[in-house]
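We modelled the chain as a single entity of 123 amino acids. Its sequence is:
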Amino acid sequence: QVQLVESGGGLVQAGGSLRLSCAGSGRTFSGYTMGWFRQAPGKEREFTAAITRTGGSTYYADSVKRRFTISRDNAKNTVTLQMDSLKPEDTAVYYCAAEGGGYIYDLKKYDYWGQGTQVTVSS
């Protein structure tokens, strides 16, 4: 069992930066691929970024490549999403999630989810 709590969302102007954090509980945190997904109003939840168990590999949606960076610290049970050069279209609720089977992109395969944190980018 893993419990996830996101923090760090807020309101920022276009071109600005935000840093989202996800704190996990449980001794098996390092056994999970960790992902960030986002859901804009009226849209489906979509893959944003993911990082493998040891942090050796990272994956990004095309829309956030070279602007977002995912990282993790297994000793602290945290995963972070650094978001730079933010655009109004990045406005969404961002969710942290944990997945144990290596599926990376498929949100249906993620077993545990946080409650989400709102990110709003003004133009």
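As a brief sanity check on the tokenised model: The chain has a mean pLDDT of 95. The chain is about 0% helix and 50% strand.
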